[in-house]
Amino acid sequence: MGIIIHEKEKQFHLFNSKMSYCIGVCPDGEIGQLYFGKKINEDQIISYPQTKGIRPVCCNLKENENYSKELALLEYPAFGNGDFRKPAYEIMQKTGSRVTNLVYKTHSIYHGKKAIPGLPSAYTNSDDEAATLEVLCVDEVAGFEVTLFYTIFENYPVVCRHTRIKNTGNDEVKITKALSCCIDLPDNEYNWLQFEGAWGRERYPAERSLSHGITSIESMRGHSSANYNPFVIVKRENTDEDHGEAFGLNLVYSGNFIAEAEADTYGKLRILMGINPGWFEWPLKTGEEFETPEVIISYSDDGMNSLSQSIHHFMNNNLVRSPYKNKPRPILLNNWEATEMDFDEEKILKIARKGKEAGVELFVLDDGWFGKRNDDYAGLGDWFVNTEKLPEGIKGLSEKINELGLKFGIWIEPEMVNEDSDLYRAHPDWVLGVPGSTKTLGRHQMVLDYSKKEVVDNIYSQLYEVFSNASISYVKWDMNRSITECFSQGENAEAQGTVYHKYILGVYDLYERLMKAFPEILFESCASGGSRFDAGMMHYAPQAWCSDDTDGHERVKIQYGTSYGYPLSTVGAHVSASPNLQTGRSMSIADRANIACFGTFGYELDLNEIPDEEFDTVKEQIAFMKEYRELLQYGDLYRLSSPFEKNLAAWMVVSEDKKTAIVAVYKNLKSPNEGQQRIRLRGLDEDRKYIVNGKGEIFGDLLMNGGLSIPDGDEPWYMGNGDFSSKLYVLKSDVTK
Ligand code: DGJ
Fold it and tell me: Contact, 643 vs 649, CB < 8 A?
């Protein structure tokens, strides 16, 4: 791993054993892309890609009419100077000009990686894990500087990029667009894979080929959203799970974003990602700086399983911060689907006791414990206990839960306020919205104006009080509506374009302060399920409630799609009651657990209300999870068969030493007389003999090339009971040939 500089040619070659990322100074001084892909010889000088048009295109170099920006591959392009594709940034100057021209000035290289002030970002555990290149570019006329940051990692085919803009002129300017990165690729024969959906069906993969024009996904909801996830893959058409080239882009940001690909008419592809420029205007006074969020750019030349594994291990090791980093996650029991807001202390303790009997480790008290919170209409903003429900407070309840031998966790939704709350009555100007105009409600609640420091301070003080006076090991941080009427009351007109971004900075600030004050707490993020499931959140909360849809069959699709861009350790997955609250579908407790165990496992129901034989199964499931959770949360994941394409979905996890693996198969609809199917496994040691579910001995090579028979010979020829059945296969090996 390293960064080689060819001084004379002004080329920078970032490389590790798997990939190379090469940039250089173009003929007109701008920074251009030379190569991004599989590792190439780092000593070579790369001739600048062809930039001469046949029909004269615009050219801003008198002395080199063969150079046109329109045909160039650029690293941080502007609009208005001959490149007619979408720009990476725009700066409005005092004169009204938006014309900018960045040229290379200097660079620096160092080991390790710097944090981005106020924003989440990947980090190194020691400086020798990564090398960083900073390239400083200037526009003397417009009066600003741009620093492009590139960090290449030793252990992963990953480059992190972001950008800093500084006003070096005499006048204030306004940034109207500041994306994190631009990747210009020399051909556009790629497919675009996005992860889309809605509440209850988050992160379904959807692929399309890139033809001329712009393909774009975005959020303007104030959070990253269930509709489009800020993770995309750009891949060759024939790239599958195990072969072929793919680039992944994870934006480390939780607010409005945009990700787009522009396939131009000259056969090139531009990929852009960053803060959505919609409603974004950031004034920058002389000397001030603006730093963009970061993009984690990953690369694979051997398929998407490999791409996902790189992302998974990278996030687990270099993005997540938590006392539970790389540690097994506690098995929890959450009361939400059992009680919603209708509970008292005895009801909660009864549920918790049964959880303890089953073997759970953490009890989580969900919504409804504070203020006058008996329904959706009241209480948010008032973070003090409702003593009618919990006479001895959170302190008393948490101690009783601890006495049972369980850790105690609590739900909060700190970004929101109800009209019927003491907080709103005292500070009606603390919500986002235009005074006197319509304030759109969502779940009967309003959004607090986190762009205001005093609002964040107030919520911090309230939560500090709760967390420091009780025994709290876990916090579920929810966020149940999108931002509308994004206007900060009392702020001047110039500040209004900053509010969306400042809002999310306020959220990050509150997380940071709480993490510092309570370093032992495990945070789980949530936004009506998985509406803020992004790499930004993972820097604070190492796990996220994946979806409010806990139907086992639906969860196979949601968790399968999620696995492309996020590790299993981040996926909040619980067994809930049957029939399912969201779909009305009935599934056995075994089938519900067979998908929930690929994540941070737990239960979301009253275990007192299930039949005894199911309760016995729950005990076995918890014992199984305790035995295998390290593998299920941190193993190498291989997607084997997609629920979006096949009736039988399958995936597996393999331990680092390849001695243990767990394969899961999930059937959609049952057909009669369907015979056996074979699933070819991945990632095993071909020379090891594996015992499958305690039976037989099969070499890894046969399991990978011949496949695992589903169901196997001794079982009834059908699998489970009808539709939506599933099965886990545990493979163990102590023997090599
Ligand atoms: C939405 C979450 O996704 C649920 O799990 C639950 O916490 C409710 N909010 C509580 O209001």
Answer: yes
34-40 long-range Cβ contacts below 8 angstroms, 24+ apart: 34/73, 36/183, 36/185, 36/247, 36/299, 37/245, 37/299, 37/301, 38/245, 38/299, 38/301, 39/15, 40/15
**Catalytic residue status for 478:** yes
Query: Can you say how many angstroms the Cα of residue 572 is from the centroid of all Cα atoms in its chain?
Result: 13
Distances (CA, A) of 26 to 5, 144, 441, 562: 15, 20, 51, 39
Q: Report d(CA 381, CA 459) in Å as an integer.
A: 8
- Which residues, other chains included, contact 176 with Cβ-Cβ below 8 Å and sequence gap of 6+? 90, 91, 92, 98, 277, 280, 281, 282, 497
The three-class DSSP label of residue 610 is coil
Q: Annotated catalytic residue: which of 366, 534, 548, 606?
A: 548
Read off the pLDDT of each residue in 78-88 and give the average, rounded to a whole number: 95
Question: Quick check: is 420 catalytic?
Answer: no
Domains annotated on the chain, with CATH: 2-318 (2.70.98.60), 332-414+453-480+518-635 (3.20.20.70), 641-736 (2.60.40.1180)
Q: How far is the CA of 732 from the centre of ligand 1 (A)?
A: 38
Give me the count of residues in the chain: 737
How far apart CA 560 and CA 543 sit, in angstroms, is 16
State the chain's mean pLDDT as an integer: 96
Task: Select which of 264, 301, 367, 478 is catalytic.
Answer: 478
Ligand 1 neighbours by CB, cut-off 6 Å: 336, 366-367, 411, 478, 480, 526, 528-529, 545, 548
Could you read off the pLDDT of 162-193 as tens digits, one per residue?
Answer: 999 999 999 999 999 999 999 999 999 999 99
Beta pairing, strands 144-153 & 289-291: unpaired
Asked whether the beta carbons of 70 and 53 are under 8 A apart, the reply is yes
Given a cut of 60, whether residue 476 has pLDDT beyond it is yes
Please tell me the distance from the alpha carbon of residue 737 to that of residue 425, in angstroms, as a whole number: 74
